[in-house]
Amino acid sequence: MQNDSEEVAMKEARRRERQAGPSIHDTEGLENSDTGIGFCGWLLVGLSLIFTLLTLPFSIWMCIKIVKEYERAIIFRLGRILRGGAKGPGLFFIVPCTDSFINVDMRTITFDIPPQEVLTKDSVTVSVDGVVYYRVQNATLAVANITNADAATRLLAQTTLRNVLGTKNLAEILSDREEIAHSMQSTLDDATDDWGIKVERVEIKDVKLPLQLQRAMAAEAEASREARAKVIAAEGEMNASRALKEASLVIAESPSGLQLRYLQTLNTIAAEKNSTIIFPLPLEMMQAFVKH
Question: Coiled-coil segments, which residues (predicted)?
Answer without folding.
Answer: none
